[in-house]
Amino acid sequence: MRIVIAEDDLLLREGLTLLLQAESLDVVAATGTPDEFLTAIEAYKPDVAIVDVRMPPTHTDEGIVAAVEARRRQPGLAVLVLSAYVEQAFATELLAQGSSRLGYLLKERVGRVQEFLDALHRVANGGTAVDPEVVAQLLTRTRPATPLERLTPREREVLALMAEGLGNSAIAERLFVTENAVHKNIRSIFAKLDLAPTDRADRRVAAVLRYLEDARRRI
């Protein structure tokens, strides 16, 4: 397996090189800038590129841009992206496309040598490797918001006191605000919970029931 590394951190770049060479893998180039990386891709035609997301000069998405360009120049190139933390935009795109020969790992995974090597070989063999932490964070961030999550912290405080059975004046006293402020918060709560005035339901009771049900699910 012929590998090109693109990583601007010298220690990590050298560490990766030594790790891969110890596994009898052929690191044909270890580069520190996007331009050097693309030059190496053209020169060595590697099987796999290991690319840091954030590279010079701006340390934003230069690594991703370079990886996309490398795959354009060499179709079928396997790319394993390394990132210090979850870069949601690229990770979401990667998962949505279900692209083969692509991987996304957090850099801390490199220290777990066997997991890192397994991911590298999986990508090289045409598969996809996505860090478990990336998956967990994306699931958390993309989970559809419940109506209760629309509430502001103050509105949640008011709703919690409603659940304790307090009336508007008692809530106002507890929170050191006016009754008018409490009334506005309650109207906003009803609106955000989609509780329209009806003859069949008490909106205050309905809001409290939703709050208690949400609390029960979180236990």
UniProtKB/TrEMBL annotation:
Response regulatory domain mapped to chain residues: 2-122
Species assigned in the record: Micromonospora sonneratiae
Keyword Transcription in record: yes
Residues covered by the HTH luxR-type domain: 144-215
Residue positions, PTM 4-aspartylphosphate: D52
Full protein name: Response regulator
Residue runs in coiled coils: none
Keywords associated with the record: DNA-binding, Phosphoprotein, Transcription, Transcription regulation
Domain of life: Bacteria
Keyword Transcription: yes
InterPro entries (alphabetical): CheY-like_superfamily, NreC/VraR/RcsB-like_REC, Sig_transdc_resp-reg_C-effctor, Sig_transdc_resp-reg_receiver, Tscrpt_reg_LuxR_C, WalR-like
